[in-house]
Records
---
Amino acid sequence: MANAQGFQHTSRLKDCLARQAAEHMGRIADQSGVTVERDIDMRKEASDTWDRFDRHPGYQEIRLIQEVGARLGAGNPFFKAHEGVAGATTRINGREYINFASYNYLGLSGHPSVSQAAIEAIGRYGTSVSASRLVSGERPLHRQLEAALACSYGVADAIVFVSGHATNTSTIGHLFGPKDLILYDALIHNSVLQGVALSGAKRLAFPHNDWARLDAILTKRRRLFERVLIVLEGIYSMDGDYPDLPRFIELKKRHRAWLMVDEAHSFGVMGKTGKGIREHFGLDGRDVDIWMGTLSKSLASCGGYIAGETALVEHLRYRAPGFVYSVGMAPPMAAAALEALRYIETHPERVARLQDNGRLFFTLARNAAIDTGYCAGFAVVPAIIGSSLRTVNVANLLFQQGINVQPILYPAVQENKARLRFFISCEHSAEQIRRTVDLLADEIARG
Ligand SMILES: Cc1ncc(COP(=O)(O)O)c(C=O)c1O
């Protein structure tokens, strides 16, 4: 009943906003046949609409969602403040929760040896390098981290940026232009889409994981463009599945395209020793042209990287705007990522535990008839609930029972595919996972 009312509210508010927008557009259209008087009207209308942040459609959409949430008592599921390290458990408002809302997959954020490395780096270099690395922001830690990343991929070099999102935006935005074509999986991350838009290249999404459709597109269109880039994720962040990478490598070679793989959620997660999708499939690192990853997840830091051949990395080092015109990575962040990388090398048992936990959560959820979509049972397990409202309700009910999980709502996913996204940690116990899936199945069944 509450849901039905919710939809009435939602559609009424939506209608109201749509009417306001249509009226507004109509008024402007009317005024395009210019008389002085109408010009004055238009200026009045413009000053009411175009210089007010609260009239921005993006803001109005947020307010609409918040209003509906408040009327239905769903509350705001975002911006919860964690009062300590957020790992397999966390503390929010003084209460302990089993936590499935952080990407601390290997439990290395908050690990003593990683924290110690960051503290030592602060002691030696301070908290900021205060300049772009190109001018005076370079520290030995930066190159040590990049060498270690390149080594993990078995490629010539790597470069680190201060943000994972900026890594994709700046790299793709810089390397490609209007004569190029970028083909990306339909479920690709926003940071890739931003880079594609910035580049001005011709862009096309191909259906999720559908290498055969991609092959057909390339057969038809490759010759119309100069450079062609294909972009995939190692593990898809909203769905928890992965591409058949060898197939994509075969076709990118045949069509003379470049292949980029975003390993934000697969590095540290896939492969026997956590070296990602490359290790999972037993591939040569040089089979992929542009390896991208983030330092914020398994590597317990903040930032992103590109790994590949020397000409690629050196080009970015001197030209990528997000690197050249931005500060170098903060010393404690570089030190933390470097120590996390070393730690994973010597502790593959953490990776094995993470994989066991992902498999356990996924198997239990599937057995309980929870819709896990395309999930392959690694560290990201979605539970697809349906409407945004119902998803927020289930998240709230779980929260009341001591489980913290983030709802993913429209527009991040389709409105009928709103979901709870469970991020698994190697530090979750089997007991925590079983309890969570049991409660989740109960709440979903209760509707
Ligand atoms: C697939 C993917 N790429 C890039 C990013 C951006 O990384 P960061 O949050 O480290 O900036 C994310 C963030 O979650 C992601 O999921």
---
Amino acid sequence: MKFIDEAIIEVIAGKGGDGVASFRREKFVPRGGPDGGDGGRGGSIHAVADRNINTLIDYRYARIHRAKNGEKGQGSDCYGRSAPDIELRVPVGTVVSDLDAGEVIADLDRHGARALLAKGGKGGLGNLHFKSSINRAPRQFTRGEPGESRKLKLELKVLADVGLLGMPNAGKSTLIRAVSAARPKVADYPFTTLHPHLGVVRVDQNRSFVVADIPGLIEGAAEGAGLGHQFLRHLARTSLLLHLVDLAPLDAGADPVKDAKAIVRELRKYDQGLHRKPRWLVLNKADLLAPEVREKSAKKFATDLGWKGKSFIISALTGEGCKALTYAIMGYLEESQKRLAAKEKQERKPQINADERR
Ligand SMILES: Nc1nc2c(ncn2[C@@H]2O[C@H](COP(=O)(O)OP(=O)(O)OP(=O)(O)O)[C@@H](O)[C@H]2O)c(=O)[nH]1
Ligand SMILES: [Mg+2]
């Protein structure tokens, strides 16, 4: 199935049914009182995150979603029936924003999360509500309220702890196959991967993290070169980026240092926040280099790039170095989780003290 990570839709909730003015007419009861019931509520529209759905493709085809109107009230104290609500099922990780206001209204980040997108109109009141001591035969009733309607943007941002970044053919998909059960296609031509794949990496029985494999990035992606750079949105929620580099490119004219710099530039052009995210260098295809030159080539590469951060030498093909890498990632994620929890605790503290002083 085609992977679609963005869609614009319109949601129109149902109108409330009108209330009604009616009077009781019964044999032997000369002047029956008012008995006009209320209108039913219009149907509302909700979004619900569902782990069984992994693309927004359905919303490319069905753009307008309309809930039914509530039924009109009737005589004999009968209320109109409310219209059923509609649930739009979306992938986990879908962010919904109001297109006109430009603001995010929901981030459906776990299975079962739901958000109200458009509220159905209230039903109108029937004349039985307007009876009073001075008006025993009211003819008033109110109309149902219109339902809300809005234009929405749905954006899928996959939920992963770690994102893979690199030129086409760097071996991103090979790596995710080596460390997880995910099976994205691997081939020796550029842009094999066309949409994100998630893989769960289990380091032991109770410890795991999620990696996102995304398409390759090339110079000029911001201007649309290759597959563009829109898919970088899937790295937005990760805690760590792995910049994968082919240490032994087949193409003799290739310049891995220049290419690596281009990737970083594209990252910055896409989003400053993504550019500032922790990033590790992963030098791949070590199996193509003789063991005695690996370290040296890796060092030279890092120096030429001006890289001072963490780096790893691996072979995604043979699996060499992959275990050490995944353990380092797991450790890093657990550390940052701890730091985050400590920071949150720290931030809550002054609040308690201020309360105590009072
Ligand atoms: N020798 C060797 N070949 C590798 C290694 N990793 C990947 N390859 C090969 O490099 C080619 C590209 O690998 P992919 O995993 O498809 O690369 P990718 O980064 O996912 O590429 P795109 O999806 O096109 O961006 C394939 O022919 C792989 O078999 C490695 O560690 N050693
Ligand atoms: Mg790939």
---
Amino acid sequence: MPALRLAPPMTLAVEGDSFGGPVDFGWTDDQVALRQGAVGFASRRLADGVIERDRDSVFSRDLWDACADFGLQGILVPEEWQGGGHDTLSAVAVLEGIGYGARDNGLVFSVASHAASCAGPLVEFGSEDQKSRWLPGLANGTSIGATAITEPDSGSNALALATTAVENSGDWILDGSKTFVTNGPIADLFLIYARTGASGFGGITCFVVPRDADGLAVGPAMDKMGIRTSPISQVHLDGCQVPGSAILGGVGSGAMVFSQTMDLERLLVMAPAIGVMQRLLERCVGHARERTVGSVPIGKQQVIAHRIAEMELELEAARLLLYRAAWHRTHSGAATRESALAKLAVSEAYVASCRTAIQIFGGYGYMVDYELERELRDAVAATLYVGTSEIQKNLIAGLRGLG
Ligand SMILES: Cc1cc2nc3c(=O)[nH]c(=O)nc-3n(C[C@H](O)[C@H](O)[C@H](O)COP(=O)(O)OP(=O)(O)OC[C@H]3O[C@@H](n4cnc5c(N)ncnc54)[C@H](O)[C@@H]3O)c2cc1C
């Protein structure tokens, strides 16, 4: 057989516009201004005192309120309910700027999680009554939102949850326990996913439950490795009775609400990481130029220069995937594949970038005052929450009929 003939003939699997998807996006002047405004706000208001708050696991209500005044909590909430009414792409631009300027990654995670996983689904699936009752407070930050799907025996397999909701004369009685609930200790409002039918996609329903509902109890704050300024806890439901009007999106639609919310949350919680990586890159470049060993700047060592080039490559690749996923979601709604790709790329690049930064700073990078060890501790969580890296790969491969 001639060396250049391929046997058997190659089958091309690419269909339609699957060559990586659309690239037709660009920032408007308004979006650029929003991002710049976010950098200014975050570096003025959210950059001080983080070392102490991290050490003591302190959530700052003052800074939460400052974020709300700036419009972060209500970024996706339409103006009629006191929000900013921005689309996903604009929200990503703003949160990237916040990540760059703020050093309190835990606070930013709490805000992004509230905006994406509590306010977001209420905007998309809420009834008019639910929107007018809950959205203004969530948008102006007077109410703090949380989402509870994970349970002690169901994490990655979230839809295998055991919490039940049983109808009783028009009301619903919830029983079960949730764990790893971000904002749990401080939340006023919970979106709680419970089983209302047989196992499978149609057997889950999402309920909007206020903190003061009878039978709802919040566990003590859980101590954790990173994002320590974002409180997290268990939530217990013991005969917790809510009216039928607490159902979000209809009985049996919980899995659909959850999966669409995850598409959005992956983008909003990862956007600040792009800003953090940009900041780390700039710090590393500065350090590599200034730090001399044997009167030679360490940046003159090719091994250091290449590590920084790799940081930049991973940052830009992750950033483009994130922008494209946000563009996709803004213009065509669904973005499961795009948001999974972006979440996987950003979270893994985030950890790698923090790891490299510590190495480039040497022993200084290991010291708390240099604020790099905290960045690494914070970054590791990104490979776990909103679906682990393995689960993102399962999602991506699953859409190809694999796994
Ligand atoms: C900081 C933080 C904040 C969080 N906030 C919230 C929140 O607000 N609300 C909420 O409901 N939950 C929240 N979570 C929970 C989070 O979604 C789960 O931790 C995550 O889904 C993983 O579940 P798990 O911890 O039970 O791990 P497991 O599901 O037990 O997984 C353990 C390991 O096995 C791997 N694994 C499991 N199944 C598979 C599979 N099928 N294929 C390949 N690998 C697999 C995982 O990737 C992981 O490496 C949070 C978690 C963290 C760390």
